[in-house]
Amino acid sequence: MFMAYNQLIAEQGIAGHTLEIGVHHGLSAIGMAALRAPHAHFVAIDLFEELQSQNVSASGSGNRAIFLQNMKSFYPDTAFLKLIARASNELMPEDVGQGFSFCNIDGGHSMDETYHDLDLCRQVLLDGGLAALDDYFNPMFPGVCEGAVKFMLRDPKTFRPVAVGFNKVLLQKQPAIVDLNARFSALFPRIPRVVTTMWNTPTLLLDRCPLRAFFDPPQSTPQRLSPASEHVFGVELGLDRDHLSAPCGSRATLRVQVANRSAAVLEIMYSDIGLTYHLQSAEKTMLAWDNDRVSFTRPLKPGQQTALDLPVRVPDQPGTYYVEIDLVWEGVMWFHETGNPTVLAQLTAVER
Questions:
Q1: Which one, out of 56, 146, 162, 208, has a CA that is 20 to 30 A from the CA of 303?
Q2: 243 and 215, same structural domain?
Q3: How far, in Å, are 23, 144, 228 from residue 105 at the CA level?
Q4: Which value, to the nearest 10 degrees, does the dihedral of the CA atoms of residues 255, 260, 264, 268 take?
């Protein structure tokens, strides 16, 4: 998510230094450092082990040696790295510099610390730059949400939420010329658009499906992501029979084979993946779109297949109908919307 949106702002010429408040052991810092402009700095702020007495919110315990070891495993020359071992709420803009295009806030999780970190990023970010805020929705750290809302109420025009996902909220400093989410959808059209509202602003929700599956890592760089070449959610559906007959008003069962032909694991994350059907008339007009679901109980890996028994409600009126089998990711997408083929079974409803 960070790389995709950083790519979008870089297209608009917004590229500069990057910053992370609360680097801990440096795993996300490795990625943040890769998002800086050529010859720019990456500023890492943490209390590290020597200043943990100031960690009032107990939100992490950084280690300088582990952090540096992890950074050097990716960057043998760390001359670009500026390390600040201080409490972030003591820092002023002159302590970190100006001209930042991306700030990741994951430091102190109290209300005051969060408020100060957002205000610091406000002062050092370029217009149109990005600020990511960790743990906004984490009930263990309500101070993060409190501090962010306090900042928004006092300064409602500085940050605009653009995306939510993976325990992060991504904000863009205003003014911004380009609608990032419109550009996101144009550049990555295969990613399902799930829109929520945050701070009265339409915001993309990006962690309801495996975002990484939509990209080709070997062909990508941190600065430019390459979309996956194969069908991300390719599923092959098969039936044990293409016709069934049952009394009106009863329930019938279709045995459906589901084979995962995609590069992504089909798994339950924040919502269910379910096998379902649409009921059509003999003339193939839609009679009932939403019907019973059968949810996956285990992840279905690429190349694997499973068989599910799909219950079908037989209409009360006798006649010929069609059952169109489809998969749905609740709250995310119908699989046929991504080009995945459905299958049809003829249903004959007979009088009792």
A1: 208
A2: no
A3: 9, 10, 30
A4: 10
In a domain, residue 230? The reply is no
What's the CA gap between 141 and 58, in Å, rounded?
10
User: Residue 264 in contact with residue 208, Cβ under 8 Å?
Assistant: no
For residue 226, tell me if it sits in a domain. no
| Dist. CA 210–CA 242, nearest whole Å | 33
Whether residues 200 and 259 share a domain: the answer is no
User: Cα–Cα distance between 232 and 59 in angstroms, integer?
Assistant: 36
What pLDDT score does 322 carry? 97
What pLDDT is attached to residue 222? Answer: 94
Mean pLDDT of the chain: 90
Q: Which of 164, 185, 219 is the last residue of a domain?
A: 219
What is the span of the domain harbouring residue 322? 235-350
Question: pTM for this one?
Answer: 0.74
Is 185 found in the same domain as 71? yes
**Which tokens sit at 118?**
């957002």
Q: What values do phi and psi take at 343, rounded to 5?
A: -130, 150
Residue 34 and residue 152 in one domain: yes
Give DSSP secondary structure letters for 183-205. Answer: HHHHHSTTS---EEEETTEEEEE
Q: What element of type H or E holds 172? A: strand 168-173
Domain end call among 188, 219, 250: 219
Distances in Å between the Cα of 178 and the Cα atoms of 8, 129, 292 are: 9, 12, 42
DSSP character string of 311-338? EEEPPSS-EEEEEEEEEEETTTEEGGGG
Same domain, 135 and 6: yes
User: In the chain, how many domains are there?
Assistant: 2
